[in-house]
């Protein structure tokens, strides 16, 4: 059985094994998850790899010992494209090419997971990441902030928006008719993201509103926003509890739950 994924997992293993104890401990602390990958090649054959970035840092062929935090099923070619940076994991998921079971938030860490091994992969196979496809990775990366869980949500929303057809995007903008600015508090600092569902075909980016004053500016703690986006918390309840502050058009807060839910598709189990 031939798999493009095999040398990629070997590169990940080499990278983890070569890290100093401090670097390895830092990586385990940041990712804190056990991944199981079920990879299918063009012949319909399947191989499984386990990546323990929670306790041991081990990369092994075969199923994880114990229940993994997240199980990912993906075609060999798609996995290779994600690892090389040719395709963003979020876009592959939104296109139905990557199936996820378990902790959905961990799937958003995939692009960062492969970042360290991409130089080695490129050196071994220069044609792995064509220049024409390069813009796909920076788009999601520009929204990702280490230590800010909400940034992964905005990356997912960005992927969801760009996975829509022109008609779907126009309809989403028409329904929302608003620019939301989010001031996310995390680790003693504030990080700003803007969801523009008013101008053009919509956009998501890091930083304050680029088109003047946002229709609604929302200030919220990082974990509260994650709970809101995942449906574990209700926007109106967070507002009433003083955990969500809004400046501008107050009524737009009532649209938040629906907007966030509509732009994040659930994994296929």
Structural description of this entry:
This protein has 13 helices and 10 strands. With 269 residues, the protein is α+β, with helices and mostly antiparallel strands. Strands 3-2-1-4-5 form a 5-stranded mixed beta sheet. A 5-stranded mixed beta sheet has the order 8-7-6-9-10. The protein starts with a helix and ends in a 7-residue tail after the last helix.
What would the CATH topology of the largest domain be? Nonspecific Lipid-transfer Protein, Chain A
Radius of gyration: 19 Å
Structural class assignment? alpha+beta
| Total helical elements | 13
CATH domain class of the largest domain: Alpha Beta
Q: Could you say what the CATH architecture of the largest domain is?
A: 2-Layer Sandwich
Helix and strand layout, with pairings?
Layout: H1 5-18, H2 21-31, E1 33-40, E2 46-53, E3 59-61, E4 70-75, H3 76-84, H4 89-94, E5 98-102, H5 104-107, H6 110-115, H7 118-124, H8 136-141, H9 149-163, H10 166-176, E6 178-186, E7 189-197, E8 203-206, E9 216-221, H11 222-230, H12 235-240, E10 244-248, H13 256-262
